[in-house]
Amino acid sequence: MDKSAETLEFNQILDMLCNFAMSENIRQKLSKLQPYISEAECKRKMQETTDAKKILDSFGTPPLSSMKEIGNILELCSKGSMLIPEQLLNITQFLTSCKRMKLYLQKAECLGTDIALYGGSLNDLSELYHEIERSVRNGIVDDCASASLRDIRRKIENVNVQVKAKLDSLLRNKKEWFADSYVSIKNGHFVLPVKKEFKNQISGTVINISGSGGTYFIEPSSVSKLQEEVTTMQIEEENEIRRILYTLTALVDEHAPSIRINIEALESLDFVFAKAKLSVQMDAIPVPVTTKRRIVIKLGRHPLLNKDICVPLNFEIGDNIQGVIITGPNTGGKNSRSQNSWAAFFDGAKWASCAGVRGKRILHAQPDSVRYWRWPEHNGEPVYIFFAYYQYHRNPSLREPRKLGAIG
Predict the structure, then answer these.
(1) Which element (helix H / strand E) includes 92?
(2) Which of 36-50, 294-308, 350-364 has the lowest mean pLDDT?
């Protein structure tokens, strides 16, 4: 950011603006905003902000999402990687946001704003959404994803019931052998908590030993065959899950062009609505823009000042007013007014929304139309001098600030 923008504390305004963006890409884009030099571009951008603010006032905050990791997920798809359930759920959340945003903009069409027409550019991806929603739930691949997966998991559950029934029977018949009265699972195996002195009474495999060494977790031989069946079926389950995830990944990749179009549309909306949200916070208004070398501010205020206690500023330069001198005691008012005058112009040129008092009129000149200097103290008081740039530029005698005699 250039020095003049930092002097006017415009970087703080941009920070406030970035906080209203949902997408990290848009936050970076907003932080690099530069003034719009073209009068037509300035008016167009200001109208976008005005339209978005009108929608905000009528229908509330738009249902935009952060779109986090969506770009990376599409990149993984294009490389043939397999998406995991969490990534697929990110896709469904994004698609849900697209659907809600489309409905939001459809309602806003009654306002006659161009922003509402963005809804027509959002692709309907219901087929992809329903397929992922049917297959992935609560962060895992659901039984409904395929008939084979449902059948495998049902068989695993039946075998596990048989294993647990046999172990429960041993627990009931030989209570004195066991440290606890329930079946445990260690390293994926159903085991019995056998006391050390009875470990040789049960034929089976020692899966684990307690920290004190007093309890042996043994898988009895009577359930080993059933446990092997479970292990085999778990491998089949894993293979089926991978097949389903690869199928869903291919489906996402197939719809990638449409998803990217939706990302671009939502990011454009995020950009515009971020400006509108800040405009609402500042109680900002749209302002007329002119190519004349003139600035008129009526009841304007610096957007970083508390609007409840800030005294509005009236300021005018151009036409018959070639220079303005601001002086007074060291109470901060001169600097505030000089920053306010330039920031009002700078804000409008930069992101086409200016902080002012609702219903009042502010006219902006073109960039570099006004310059101001902080003159050395006069009688102990700093002096701020404004010159209209066209006078400064054309008259060689004004290329440097002149001593103006007595200053009040």
Answers:
(1) helix 85-108
(2) 350-364
